[in-house]
Amino acid sequence: MSCPFCEIVAGRLDASVVAQTEHALAFLDIRQAVPGHVLVVPKRHVEDIYAIGPELAGDVMQLGVRVANALREAFRPAGLNLWQSNGAAAGQEVPHFHLHVQPRRVADGLLRVYTHGAPPPSSRAELHDLAQRIQRFLPHDHGVPTPRSSS
């Protein structure tokens, strides 16, 4: 099965293009969750965040920021979401990395992250343990020391 986003990039499927760069394309989502719902994708097929390189991710994000600023001017929304999902459990429907840029209004009907209120704060010890668990798997290739949380 072919990738619909690759088909859009190649010009074989119609899309309402908002902007593009050499490496990224922004177009209106065919299912407008809110007016102005834009998808920003790399032009090269990359399945998810685990497969995208830092440079290409930066290109996609930079275009996402440009689109966000344009949406702010065009729609004057009360807020804006940047949303990106990976894998079926997270709600990724098209296996091609994509960033949703959505202008938001109060009570616009879209999902709120914490539908029953934010969870209570975790203990500092639990947060420190989680940070250490994650830090073990981060590359330290830029000469920047890993930040330490204060206890």
From TrEMBL:
Residue positions of motif Histidine triad motif: 96-100
Domain HIT span(s) in chain numbering: 4-111
Name of this chain's protein: HIT family protein
Organism: Dyella kyungheensis
